[in-house]
Fold this sequence. Notes:
By secondary structure, the chain is an alpha/beta fold. The protein is 26% helix and 13% strand.
Amino acid sequence: MLYGACRAAPRPGAGTDTPIPGAQSLIRTSSGRPLQGRFLHITAADFHPDPFYKPYSSTEADAACHRKRGPAGVYGGETSACDSPISLVNETFKWIDENLRDSIDFIIWTGDSARHDNDEKLPRTQTQVVEQNELLVTKFIEVFGTGSKADNGDATGELSIPIVPTFGNNDILPHNIFLAGPNKWTSKYLSIWKNFIPEAQRHQFQQGGWFYVEVIPGKLAVVSINTLYLFDSNSGVDGCANKHEAGYEHMEWLRIQLQGLRDRGLKVILMGHVPPARTDSKASWDETCWQKYVLVQRQFRDILVGSLFGHMNIDHFMIQDFKDLNKDTKKGQMASGASSQDSEMRESMLEDGEITVASAADYLLDLGNAWAKLPSPPKSTFKSKTSSSTTYLDTDEDKSSIWEWALNQIPLFKKNYKGDRKKYLDKIGGKYGERFSIAHVSPSVVPNYFPTLRVFEYDITGLEDTKLFPVRNAPPEEADPPSPQLPGSYFDFFDDEGWIQDVKAMVQMKRKEKEKKVRKNPKKYKFKVPEPPSKSAPPGPAYSPQVFTLKGYVQYFANLTHINNDFVAHPESLDLGDEKSSIFGLDLEDGVVESKKWKEGKHKNHQGKKPKDKPHPKKFKFEVAYNTTHDKVFKMKDLTVRSYVDLARKIGRDKKGEPGKIYQDASDDDMSEDFFFDDDDEEKGKKHGKKHGKKHGKKHGKKHKHDGPWYTFVRRAFVGTMDPHEIEEAFSLHGVKEEIGQEEVMEL
């Protein structure tokens, strides 16, 4: 049994300051920066800079904001599938420079810094991928470089704070296909990211694109996971079971590094590009990799702070349930994905490595249905004067309910409540919810919806006097060359056709290997199960509030509809004269979003003409979309696992149309502070519903509040670009599964 021990949180600042050979080189001066307790997660993982972007071009699929006339704005074609203009890249870094540079301690940069290969007339090249990534590196150095120079007058590349990058699936060519390392891309990015990768980590990085950085030396590390070896769209590899696969090697490396960091007393943030999304029928990772990753999360939960990802463009979180670990996984044995039983296989939720609006809608609905089945805390059938609904009692140590205090004075109730509370805590893995782990997924900069940034706040109790010093990594030595037995295209970044053909040939070989494994009897491979926390170890920062616990985050967004100033200021403008409903230019019929990879955006009716004679954009700025610390809908006191599990249950129950059972109805003076909420939205939804003769806002006789948890979750997922009518259409009129039993639990 892994749960139930009574443990105290570690003392503030626990860890060691003992340097380790090869750790991040620090230039220590008397002018070190004080620790701020904040860091920036930038999904430049999903920056996708596009040098071919043209303002007032068409957002149609055959134009891709590169040609023809249409609604593409100066700073991007918001809600379309077009990539980011360089103007958006420049303004984003300018805003970071003016507003965040001196108030953050480090940056987590989760990949995809090259444009998509979405224009047949302008196919991507290897040199373009490299140059677009070099552009982003240059921007980071412009803002966070110290400007120091070496004796010979050359710039040293010294940074004021650590920046931790990772590979995105579009940072390579062809996209998605990342072959086992060392390969040409690990060698090239070792040079591109030379200012970011610690000297001691460079050999490991070249092996497979993985490394870690001690962002607060001796105390906090960020581990960069190469998720391209883990996600199911990479046909150049085969999961994490076979010891000859890159995924297996990656998971072994991760286990060894985390054990070493644990031994040294450090806490850890995990980061990557593609998140470990998984429902009962679909997934974004190979199942063998998901199993091993979740096992790592369970075994190292005493040191983990959290995990951060990008890629999916939608703002949300996901819960990993340790009960979904297979018995074989917990024993240290596993069949490869190609030879595993059909019952273990899930369809990919990604189309050519990307998530569409239709698949995102289905995915969020699946999450809502699953979360509604999470265990519920003990309830009281007593009714207060202000509420006729069942009240679920708070199970935290701080008793906030006067009813709970009063009822506990009744012996019979007290006895029953304690028994029910124990059963509930057993179901969630104890008072800290150690049956689960959490993955944060930030929305993107590329304006598939609106551009975003996210700033996390973390606990620095006891570390207030800690100083951060500039980071200078020694120039990399010549990278180890790939094997001379490899094709010549491995060494050439100009022969694109030759390289693509070589990759296709290797993928074909890998496919034949997989087919051969399927025909044979499944073989189980053994691996070493990570050591669990010691019995005396307290819960980690992800579970119990302590130093490095994530306290909250501020989500920023740039309202491009307003900034581009080409159309009406309100982002949710709808053409109410159109008989057919649509979302982002995709048809919406009977609650089902058109399953199309490309979307023209909300301004698709303006194709073929310029919005104005010439652009007159307003001042570019990011503004606060919401702040979890002051959020009156989600009401999260911190970002611990327990807080997220409670929130997930609220969202799921609200989706089922049972708001009274999971949160107190907001009074008139307790409305959401979400910037996305607009008083006009309800009225617009009513008008549109009346036009189509439908009574939106109701489902199974239950009215969904447009400021309730489920609507808020969906609305934030799409960065405020959907109005209540669209949410009702796409998320409430279909996808409702069987009635949920209170104690029933399913996969998340």
